[in-house]
Amino acid sequence: MSPVHGEVVLKLNFPHSESEREGAALAVWNGDGAVRLLAEDSARRALLLERCRPGTALADVEDADLAGSQDRMDVVVDLLRRTLVPTTVAFTSLADEAGRWARRLPRRWNAFGRPFPQRLVHAAVADIEDLLLGVEPPVLLNADLHAHNILSAEREPWLIIDPKPLVGERAFAAASIVRSFEFGHSLRAVWHRLDRLCDGLQLDRERARRWTCAQTTAWAVDSSHREAHIEVVEWLRSVG
After folding, report:
1. What is residue 45's three-state secondary structure?
2. 144 has catalytic annotation
3. How far apart are CA 227 and CA 116, in angstroms?
4. The whole model's pTM is what?
5. Residue predicted with more confidence, 48 or 5
6. Does 103 have pLDDT greater than 60?
7. Hey, which bits of 165-212 come out as E strands?
8. pLDDT recorded at residue 1
9. Catalytic residue among 144, 195, 199, 204
10. Which of 151, 185, 192, 144 is nearest to 166 (CA)?
11. 8: which of 88, 96, 127, 238 lies 20 to 30 Å off by Cα?
12. CA distance 237 to 206
């Protein structure tokens, strides 16, 4: 157990595959860019975490509120640069997870009443099949990093909370931020985020674009933000 300094949070996770390795991901990061894990009871899905104070979400601030010339994308790039690290811990692989998206997407799209054009389903499946042929050293990824899961803190200006860990290629790391409408929702804003992440993290732009389209399409089927997600996909597929 890590030493406790200041206030803590006891988090009890609902049983779900996405949350079952949250503690392991936080342990790998060991407080570098992410909230510190102080203790874990896996049987109870209980995590004891450092508390972020004041705890303002990055989604709730404007660029003008940040210190110096920094903007919100600078914050994201810095945190991702520090958390996209190699690991020997046995997390679910991006290849396995994306394979499930590809297999389930056509069935789920039908089950939910074909809520967007079928060509997007075909394109997402084709992208996944092609992207999985690439070979790159895997790193620890966060499948659902967005502006409400980055909080202001005292130990560091900003910390990541609530990771959904996978291991796979770095280009995938852009996906959840590119579609994160809290940073602005327009064709220009989406492409700006993609470019900033790829430049700041030295990601393959085309692979990052295709991973964003594929994951966003797969997640859009039953999402409460389906319309916004599909707009992101259409914008990324309409301009190269």
Report:
1. coil
2. yes
3. 9
4. 0.91
5. 48
6. yes
7. 165-168
8. 44
9. 144
10. 144
11. 88
12. 11
